[in-house]
Amino acid sequence: MRTIPTLLPVLVFLLVAAASAADDGGDNSTFVPRDYILLDCGSSGQNNDSDGRQWNGDTGSKYAPSLNSAGVYASNQDSSVPQYPYLTARVFTTPFTYSFPLGTGRKYLRLYFYPSNYSGRAASDAFFDVNAGPITLLRNFSAYQTAQAINFAYLIQEFSINVASSGLSLTFTPSVNHSNSFAFINGIEIVSMPDIFSDIPTLVSGGTPTQYPIDENWAMQSMYRLNVGGQAISPKEDSGMYRSWADDSLYIYGAAFGVTYPADTNVTIEYSFPSLSPLGCLLLG
Ligand SMILES: *[C@@H]1O[C@H](CO)[C@@H](O)[C@H](O)[C@H]1NC(C)=O
Ligand SMILES: *[C@@H]1O[C@H](CO)[C@@H](O)[C@H](O)[C@H]1NC(C)=O
Ligand SMILES: *[C@@H]1O[C@H](CO)[C@@H](O)[C@H](O)[C@H]1NC(C)=O
Ligand SMILES: *[C@@H]1O[C@H](CO)[C@@H](O)[C@H](O)[C@H]1NC(C)=O
Ligand SMILES: *[C@@H]1O[C@H](CO)[C@@H](O)[C@H](O)[C@H]1NC(C)=O
Ligand SMILES: *[C@@H]1O[C@H](CO)[C@@H](O)[C@H](O)[C@H]1NC(C)=O
Q1: Global pTM?
Q2: Which of 266, 267, 268 maximizes ligand 6 atoms within 8 Å of its Cβ, making it the mutation to test the pocket?
Q3: Which of 71, 117, 159, 254 has the most crowded CB, counting CB atoms within 10 A?
């Protein structure tokens, strides 16, 4: 007999905090981030990824001056895995901190992981914590198990964090009590995001929509980002924050897929902040 796993109570926040591109006459303005860092861990020099975005190697980088020699290559250089930033890594057997001087305000922090074997270390042995200053973003994280669970060869963990004053310290710490444990990272992306939470967002969770204030010290992790009624959008096609948007049809349960309507051109939606993103919504959990 097949047992149906108990569904854990999951609180899903649907924060309708992303604006539509619809504005008076169609405003296509693109957000220009103050901070925009693409750090290709374990490599040196500048390399463009398949999306045309330019990554800088962390060898000799001002964010990690002690990393003055090359990192390690993934042992399986799978052609289906994008070379930048995934095929090189930094491996840490003791805690290591990158220090990013940044402007204040919220940032997207994207951590890129390709759980391969690295210089004789097995991918399945990597268990580690990632801390942004005092906040633990990932605890006893296994990129290997996570990638297996979602059936992907590589993955990105995206966070929204507030940088108060002195920039961002990002620390990788191998878990204790697991023999041969190590930490690794393939790529780090930091992009300023606009101040979308100072106007209190609306929480939609099945009941009556309520206001849901976001404390500026909270860090949040993105779970899904769907372009509702539209297609997938690559980071390069986003409106300046390099977000990845997924097609929502994969996430609709049941037989009825609904009908997709384009925006009504007779209706003007006015937002109190500049228009930023395609039609859609941001799911944070
Ligand atoms: C905005 O972009 C769309 C699609 O690229 C285009 O059709 C429209 O003319 C643009 N609007 C403005 C005001 O530039
Ligand atoms: C890499 O990207 C940068 C910035 O987008 C661009 O200026 C440069 O020409 C690109 N280099 C190559 C080799 O495509
Ligand atoms: C990774 O290392 C483990 C342990 O040494 C080994 O069993 C496994 O076959 C290796 N995987 C690859 C893809 O090289
Ligand atoms: C980390 O996770 C592994 C596998 O899930 C587990 O065996 C181990 O006890 C955990 N370690 C800590 C310190 O939580
Ligand atoms: C690791 O093991 C030591 C000794 O067995 C124990 O005191 C400690 O609490 C363990 N730490 C974690 C995070 O499990
Ligand atoms: C917009 O308004 C015009 C004139 O009232 C009308 O003919 C048209 O059907 C409207 N468009 C939509 C999408 O409702």
Answers
A1: 0.80
A2: 266
A3: 71
